[in-house]
Design a protein that fits this description.
Chain B: This is ABC transporter ATP-binding protein. The complex is a heterodimer. By secondary structure, chain A is an alpha/beta fold. Chain A is built from 20 helices and 13 strands. Chain A has 3 domains: 269 residues, MetI-like fold (Orthogonal Bundle), CATH 1.10.3720; 229 residues, 3-Layer(aba) Sandwich (Rossmann fold); 84 residues, no CATH class. The longest helix of chain A has 38 residues. The C terminus of chain A is likely disordered. Chain B is α/β, with parallel strands linked by helices. Chain B has 2 domains: 210 residues, Rossmann fold, CATH 3.40.50; 79 residues, no CATH class. Classes of the chains: A alpha/beta, B alpha/beta. The interface between A and B is large, with 70 and 79 residues.
């Protein structure tokens, strides 16, 4: 929410109009009473209740006062009263709103209940009620409108504060002994400020209208004082004689109300409550698959024939998003080669941001809408999704081609990290499974459900008959993940892609799910691609391990050669995770720095800034090169020595002991 | 640093049919100057226990003591500090990290005193003191977790409760935070309750390991002993399930038996007798004559068994020869 954003808001039409109107109103409010205050009060007995004349462009009122001047001069009073009412409303609302968060449980509930009760009354009714209580007049009206708006504002504050006060930093502040008042002022209010400010501006517009309404009814401003509402009321009596006497204050009310509402809208855009539609780079800006800058020279120079039994053959896969990169695009996945043979289990390991999940999604054509996926080759379960010229996917064959959908839907199975969100919560599990067979194979309801129950039994969901009729929330996490696998088995998949399938699960359940995947792989002969951040998990299940870093594959090796990993990053990954044999006396190996932002990757080897072996050679892009049988590493200085034991064996990362200011501070 | 002890601590949520005891009669001692690791699956009540200690959730029953004196007043709670799991949520996004840390500094040290203290604390957690003015958004996950640690230490606590402080971090960063915990412990002689679902992580930093299951401590003892000769079958199951290099997924472990219930029991309706019996590889499901597990709660006599194990057969659950029951 920097200055630049505010400046940008001024340039967009809504913001510009709001700002212009506000400046105009502010100037009027300040200047008009000074310049025309006397003129507006001056009675002209010679011109009582006139229509438009050259002396009085908008006519005069019953006492011969100039209506134009009166409307202009009334700006200050009208706006002042509206703002005052808004202030009362905001202050009362904020107090009522934060009280529940800092009071005890019981008194907090009482406040919430009281506010809820007050919200149930229409605001206008409340305003009239208060106006009668506080007496007719400007002061009464201000209090009435202010207090009438308070309950709904309080409700808004309560909702926002409740969301924030559940967060850890508020708990942390409480634990640190921060007092209630400070908690509100420093932690709660600043973090709920944006929606409140937006709402308050809209509220000001509403207050202005309400005031005009009350004054118009005679409950607001009393003579001799006057605001737009009173002028409107006076003018209305003679609307057939002099329409402008009523129209002018009406127009003023509309303009001022509009100014406040537009201001709220503009602020909302800046603080991001309502997002404006981002303008995407045009399709013609689609990045070339093989840009001249050599960004994808890590890929094989020319597509080679894939192994005949490959269920997945990927070459030069790039996934680009419009972003802050040098050419207006960022590439979270930047030239990935991957081959998976029939019946093989391959693990993809990487940290968050390495592009491993996006790779998986692209294979299943589930990449986000904005992403542009290109590849030199992308053969998934026997279907070519990209040609040799690096066609952008989504051009041909189209994304929603029913044939492609059916092909992928039956031969490719996906298992996601969070099985709670990958099931439709309002549909029984059995029917969701059955849907696969019904959509892709046109099976009848009964047959499809029978198969669903059978598949649930295959993945050892106990009492499948009964559980098929349950909803996803009635399943535990592990069971849901089993059901997800069962869904993949509804047709005969050749490839199962499991993206962090056990990350949300406990170790005991994790083991069960991994064993299930192994079992399914053996029984169906499907290939499994397991994606995880945990190299130990991957090593358990997979024959071959692919290590990703910064959108590229940096090493590919058989699982039983992990102790001979050649890439320093793979070694670092292995060394920094303690397992049950790690020596407790030695510090864990650490990697200084952090993974590069996809928008600003260093030239050459992306790991070089964190690597202690890096030298000038590493400024050039390393390609995946064979370092041992079945083992390829993208490194100019591959480690070929035996890394005897996982854990704290020196792999040259850093000398033992603490590294001052690691992570970024000492970063190259 | 002083000793923190839990005595029969119970935390109940809800009322009526939806009531559940997240923590159920926990006795646990964190001796002064040592790190106690608390492991258990999600929902076992480990975080709730820590939150009860710092006063974020009210206890229903039992007592939490610091050096034998019950903790009650709000003032006392400051003696315990907690570090939260998610460093992206535990720092106020609108406050500089310096201000976040300074807020926890006790007393009124004045502006320069406070700045010096913040600098000292940042130095202590291996962060550049000149970064005191940056907002959390400019920091990586590991750096944020260091700030969270510094904030906890700022209050000069007697005990630090670390709740899953590495599980939201990337693996390459996790190691450096664990190293920091070890170093701080050595430098400051921290007393710490270190909570994690990851046995390997807990093992790396702890002197004592306590295992929690369904709101109860089922086994507690010196780290090396608990890991090499677990007395409770649940501990054994956890150890077996932890992924290890060179150990294939196919090598069956007792808990892989198909007889056992895959579904973790609901805390709303804990099983009678031993709470683990439906998933127990040496319990009544595999050894039918062990009906005592269904009938009698092993918790009350736990203190007399090795590792205070809440298992009727703790004594004969010999380490290496944990039998694989015949199917």
């Amino acid at each position: 929410m920097g200055r630049a954003q505010w400046r940008a808001a001024l340039r967009n039409p809504v913001g510009a109009v709001a700002a212009g109107l506000l400046v105009l109103l502010a100037i009027l409010a300040i200047v008009a009473p000074i310049l025309w205050g006397d003129a507006a009060e001056a009675t002209d007995p010679a011109a009582l209740s006139q229509g438009s004349t050259s002396d009085h462009p908008l006519g005069t009122d019953a006492l011969g006062r100039d209506i134009m001047f009166r409307v202009l001069v009334a700006t200050r009073y009208s706006l002042g009263l509206a703002l005052l009412a808004t202030a009362i409303c905001v202050v009362a609302g904020v107090i009522l709103g934060v009280l529940p968060a800092v009071l005890g449980r019981r008194s907090g509930r009482l406040v919430v209940a009281a506010v809820n009760l007050a919200v149930a009354f229409p605001a206008l009714l409340l305003a009239l009620f208060f106006a009668v209580i506080f007496g007719v007049g400007a002061r009464g009206a201000v209090l009435a409108i202010g207090l009438a708006g308070a309950p709904s504002f309080a409700r808004l504050v309560q909702t926002n504060v409740a969301a924030v006060s559940g967060r850890d930093f508020v708990a942390a502040a409480r634990v640190a002994g921060v007092g209630r008042f400070r908690l509100i002022v420093r932690h709660l209010l600043p973090n709920v400020g944006e929606p409140l400010v937006v709402n308050a501006t809209v509220l000001a517009g509403g207050a202005l209208l309400a005031f005009a309404g009350l004054s118009f009814l005679g409950l607001g401003v009393q003579p001799p004082a006057y605001d737009w509402g009173r002028l409107l009321g006076e003018g209305l009596d003679r609307i057939y004689i002099n329409p402008s006497a009523a129209l002018a204050p009406g127009v003023a009310v509309v303009i001022a109300g509009l100014a406040f509402t537009l201001l709220g809208e503009a602020i909302a855009q800046v603080v991001g409550i309502r997002t404006t539609r981002r303008i995407l780079p045009r399709r013609s800006a689609t990045p070339p698959a093989d840009p001249a800058d050599g960004a994808s020279t890590a890929t094989a120079p020319a597509p080679t024939e894939p192994a005949p039994d490959a269920v997945l053959a990927v070459e030069g896969l790039r996934v680009g998003f419009p972003g802050a990169g040098p050419d207006g695009w960022t590439y979270p996945v930047d030239g990935v080669d991957l081959t998976v043979r029939r019946g093989e289990t391959v693990g993809i390991v990487g940290e968050s941001g390495s592009g491993k999940s996006l790779t998986a999604l692209s294979l299943a054509r589930l990449a986000p809408e904005r992403a542009v996926v290109t590849a030199d080759r992308l053969d998934v379960v026997g279907l070519s999704l990209a040609g040799g010229d690096g066609d952008a996917l989504g051009d041909e064959p189209p994304r929603d081609d029913p044939a492609v959908r059916k092909h992928l839907g039956t031969r490719l199975a996906m298992v996601f990290q969070d099985p709670m969100t990958s099931f439709n919560p309002s549909m029984r599990v059995g029917w969701q499974l059955a849907e696969v067979a019904r959509v892709h194979e046109g099976q009848g309801r009964r047959a499809a459900l029978a198969r669903a129950i059978d598949r649930l039994r295959t993945v050892r969901v106990p009492a499948p008959q009964r559980r098929a009729h349950q909803y996803p929330h009635e399943y535990s996490g592990g069971m849901r993940q089993r059901a997800m696998v069962a869904m993949g088995l509804m047709s005969e998949p050749e490839l199962i892609i499991a993206d962090e399938p056990t990350t949300a699960l406990d170790v005991t359940v994790q083991r069960q799910v991994l064993r299930l995947l192994r079992e399914v792989q053996r029984e169906t002969g499907a290939a499994v691609v397991l994606i995880s951040h945990d190299i130990a998990v991957v090593a358990q299940l997979c024959q071959r391990i692919v290590v990703m870093y910064a959108g590229r594959v940096v090493e590919e090796l058989p699982a039983d050669r992990l102790d001979r990993a050649a890439h320093p990053y793979t070694r670092a990954l292995l060394g920094s995770v303690p397992d049950l044999t790690t020596d407790r006396e030695l510090p864990l190996a650490t990697v200084p720095g952090r993974p590069p932002d996809p928008a600003s990757r260093p030239a050459g080897c992306a790991f070089a800034p964190r690597c202690s072996f890096a030298d000038d050679v590493c400024r050039a892009d390393p390609r995946l090169a064979t370092v041992a049988p079945d083992q390829r590493a993208a490194c100019w200085h591959p480690r070929l020595d035996d890394q005897k034991q996982h854990g704290q064996e020196p792999h040259g990362q850093e000398p033992h002991g603490r590294q001052p200011h690691e992570e970024g501070v000492s970063r190259a | 640093m002083r000793e923190l002890s839990f005595h029969g601590v119970t935390v109940r949520f809800g009322a009526g049919r939806s009531a559940l005891a997240a923590v159920d009669g926990v006795d646990l001692t964190v001796p002064a100057g040592s790190v106690v690791g608390l492991v258990g699956e999600s929902g076992s009540g480990k975080s709730t226990l820590a939150k009860a200690a710092v006063g974020l959730v009210p206890t229903t029953d039992g007592e939490i003591r610091l050096d034998g004196a019950p903790l009650r007043a709000r003032r006392d709670r400051r003696r315990l500090q907690m570090v939260f799991q998610d460093p992206y949520a535990s720092l106020d996004p609108r406050m500089t990290i310096g201000a976040s840390i300074a807020e926890a500094v006790p007393g009124r040290p004045g502006r320069t005193g406070r700045a010096a203290e913040v600098a000292r604390l940042l130095e202590l957690v291996d962060l550049d003191p000149s970064r005191a003015g940056s907002l959390p958004s400019g920091l990586s996950g590991g750096q944020r977790q260091r700030v969270a640690l510094a904030r906890a230490l700022a209050a000069e606590p007697d005990v630090v409760l670390a709740d899953e402080i590495t599980s939201a971090l990337d693996v390459s960063v996790q190691g450096s935070v664990l190293n920091l915990v070890r170093d701080l412990r050595r430098q400051l002689g921290l007393t710490m309750l270190f909570i994690s679902h990851n046995l390997a992580v807990v093992r790396y930093v702890s002197d004592v390991i306590a295992v929690m299951y369904l709101g109860r401590i089922v086994e507690a003892g010196p780290a090396a002993e608990v890991l090499t000769s677990p007395r409770h079958p649940y501990t054994r199951t956890l150890l077996d399930a932890a992924p290890r290099f060179g150990v294939a997924l196919d090598d069956p472990v007792p808990a892989d038996s198909e007889l056992l219930d895959d579904e973790p029991p609901s805390p709303h309706d804990p099983p009678p007798g031993c709470r683990f019996h439906r998933r127990c590889p040496i319990g009544p499901l595999t050894v039918p004559e062990r009906t005592v597990c269904v009938e009698k709660d092993p918790q009350p006599a736990a203190a007399d068994r090795p590792h205070r194990a809440a298992c009727h057969f703790a004594s004969d659950a010999a380490p290496a020869s944990l039998e694989v029951p015949a199917r």
